[in-house]
UniProtKB/TrEMBL annotation:
Protein name in UniProt: AraC family transcriptional regulator
Pfam families tied to this protein: AraC_N, HTH_18
InterPro entries for the chain: Homeodomain-like_sf (IPR009057), HTH_AraC (IPR018060), Tscrpt_reg_HTH_AraC_N (IPR009594)
Keywords: Transcription, Transcription regulation
Record flagged with keyword ATP-binding: no
Organism: Methyloceanibacter marginalis
Residue ranges of every copy of the HTH araC/xylS-type domain listed in the record: 191-289
One function term, GO molecular function aspect: sequence-specific DNA binding
Amino acid sequence: MAESQSEFASLIDRYAKADGVHATPIPRVFLVRSARPTLPLHTLYEPAVCIIAQGRKQAILGDAVYVYDRDKYLVISVDVPVVGQIIDASEAAPYLCLRLDLDVATLGTLLLDAGPAPSGLAPAPALSLSSVTPELIGAVLRLLRLLDTPGDIPVLAPLAEREILFRLLRGDQTAKLREIALGDSKLRQINRAIGLIKENYRETFRIEDLSDVARMSASALHSHFKSVTAMSPLQFQKQLRLQEARRLMLQGLCDAATASHSVGYTSPSQFSREYRRLFGLPPQRDIARLKTFPDGFIAA
């Protein structure tokens, strides 16, 4: 296991030379590197599995704190706003992580032979941790070694990805992965509501519209939505708005007033209050602070 972990870190180090999130020629596979701890980052996590080769990170969803390292991997089941922070990294031993975005179609084909799943179960929180196994690391290595032979990627990468997902399904993530893949699960119903909010986050929505999309009652939607995301639909929308406004200002695309209007706020004072409540500082001071810590923006 120690030898495999060493090779895992070496492969990421070879193909992710600079700090940041790096796409690879392998579909849905990203490599992450940071040579120092980062600021807490409010960001939107998408369905994925994150496996660390070196270093340590924490993700906060509501009141729950998920700390993961090379012994624990993180699974994300739906798009959800979280606070992420790399807490163990250095120039000598940088944070190194592989992120594999989850493909629903691939998961679905693997589940066809797995037999019927229990129905009607309440969805679990969007984030969960599991122990890394030698079999999982072996599958990850077979995937990453393909970066040395790009011509093999189209044929062999799908096989290695399926093996990784198979290893996850053989562990204690079976129920969560079933929820992600199966169209009639409560999680997929909540995910449809999340999709509607994401597509129309600038607009005011009615809870009835979300209920219709999710195909559940308003009370069930509220209950299951909070179980998964640790927030209400309105709080979810607010975080999306404020994160997008922050991104626009940080990139220098507009000032606070323009950013607030562009994400759907009609009151600049309300925007400023809610921005400070989420990020801890008024917009102008927050952006000035962030520009002095560019490495804080490493999302995976």
